[in-house]
Amino acid sequence: MPNLYKINTSYLYAKLTSNKLIALSESDSFLLEREIFCDILTEFANVSFNIEEIVSRLSNIHPPALILRAFNKLVSSSLVISLNREHNIPIHTDITFLVNHTPTSLKDKVKLIELEKNCTIHPLLIQHGFKLSNNTDFSIVVVNDYLDPKLVQINQTQLKNQSPWLLFKPFGNQVRIGPLFVPGNNTLCWQCLAYRLKMHQPFAYLVDNASKVIKRAKPLATEESLTIAVRQLKKVLAEIDLKDGSHLSSILCLNLVEGKLESHNAYKRPQCPECGMPYKIDYSNLQINNESTISDCSGGYRSTSPELTYNKYQYLIDPITGIIPALRHYSNANTAPLFNYSSGRNLALQSKNLFWLNNHLRSCSGGKGKSTQQAKAGALCEAIERYSMMYHEQQPCKVASLVELGNIAIHPNSCMNFSEQQFANRESINQQCSSFYSLVPIKFDSHQQLDWASVYSLINKEIKYLPSAYCYAQYPHEDESALIAYPDSNGCAAGNTYAEAILQGSLELIERDAAAIWWYNKILRPEVDLHNIGNDYIATLLDFYRSKERSLFVLDITTDLGIPAFVAVSYNLSNNKEIIYGFGCHLNTLIAVERSIIELNQLLPILLDKKLDQLDHQLNDWLTLQSIDDHPYLLPSNSNKINPLNHYPDDHPTTISSAVNKITDHFAKAEIDLFMLDLTQPDIGMPVVKTIAPGLRHFWRRTGPGRLYTVPVKMGWLDSAYNEDELNPYSIVI
Predict the structure, then answer these.
(1) What residues does the YcaO domain cover (predicted)?
(2) pLDDT digits over 491-513, tens only?
(3) How is the chain split among helix, strand and coil, in percent rounded to 5?
């Protein structure tokens, strides 16, 4: 008798297109991009089968050899499993100790709600002393998946009836219990929880947008695993007293295979559409001109130390309920003076579109600094910044066209600065690029009805409006390949105060404007005298780079804005390749120089750890093919080295707000307005802003008219402006 097989029910299967399907389980995921996979999984989703049946039923549309190869691939991936093989959960020996001391009885009656009927759960609960009744407010909802769409209705019903309920997943390798939702008690609801859970499951967004869910997951369960799950549930419920208000605000995760019991705190979202209040931006109460004293200058002006910042927000680090899965030092090489931490996938780049998802999964958030504390705080703050960049269902301030809004509207291309040539060649440019930052959006239609968000001028103290699609990452759109703007973190920053966030964001705008003007015009700039700058950390780095047979020097690229900006450059001295560069800008000249080198430090581990194969092809080609000999603008000019401490005014502010005022003074003098968009999220609390300065350049390739062409002539670096076709053919890719 031939072997019988079945589709592995531990996975959810969702069809995206005729030839694309995703499979999700509690521990892994697959993207299958061949029509044959879709056909096998769809045809045999609910029946057992043998190889002969597959070939017989599909040979009219696929060659038998292709069917067999696809079948073997599904078997090797465990998406198709043999009925003849026993499938058990290998329960860890420590589990019995974790669930010991189970109470003998429970005093409260509970209502059982099973989203998927299981003939074992009901009798097991009774056997273990649960008092099941339909005449009680408290419910236990048994699920296979914490994101089951049926929970939307259950959540709404329980909120309406003000009835407490508990989630319970007894199936699979990982048992989950909680949270306990208590409506009316200022606790979270299921929608609050689901919002965070999806952040860590990028494919879940694709499932929401899938053309068809072929089969919902039904994780493996045995009598032994279910018994353990029920005993743990009983132990948890015995510790909860609904009458005095004590409740479980976390998810308890019991890993049966690893023998671990972990608790993951869950938090209410004040802006939750089901249990919270809509969040509206109000600039009238914005506290910018406070007198927060600069208490920390290591790496920038801060109102508190990196340690205090990290301690305040580290609760957001959690692989299940946080916005950051973990912090990880991301180099294995001997990188003693380099401090770099990754905070995981860039959460601002969620998507329901497969093309975008493929780009976004490779994008990460991170932090760097002169110490472990700085780097960890930086990674945490950048993750908060990227989370806050996302569209979180904020209401648009206005729905109108640019023509209708008139002079209170800002044209988005005055902030992006794409050229007519780029718009005309958009399709071919986008087909060739491998990273989202290289994409050219569609040309803006001034008569199109759009959502607009309010931004506040820090110079003219007035409200203006920008398209919401420009302001927020992942703003809803039917066709993500035809957007008027793509996700852009330029000018976004988190801070301990609004003033601190504005300062960091505006410095980034100035830094990248300087980088673009220098790079695309191939300007030769003088070298900074690092040996006589009087900085021990920089001296240590000079020795370290030399020990790795790499150069290290810094060029002054400060523009007409007058705020010190620098680029640090390093290349492999043995072959003149592997060129990396980093930018830095600050009111404090020494901090600006340090920042450029510290950004360089963030890139160096890629080369030291030999991770080039993990990069997109543009960056890989730059590092492996380009020689410093072919890019003279990356080398110091022939002029004497400069000591920037003597070159720029030593006028350091004493408060964060006075530093912001200095920035706005420089902008006003250059006749450039500076706006801020409040991105702060109520469920986080840390101030986050996007600073916007129409006319300033991004360092991505955006070659429209303006400062890119006029500043080099104004500064005396060029006798006449280049034409667009004369600009540097190589784009900034780091």
Answers:
(1) 367-734
(2) 999 999 999 999 999 999 999 99
(3) 35, 20, 45
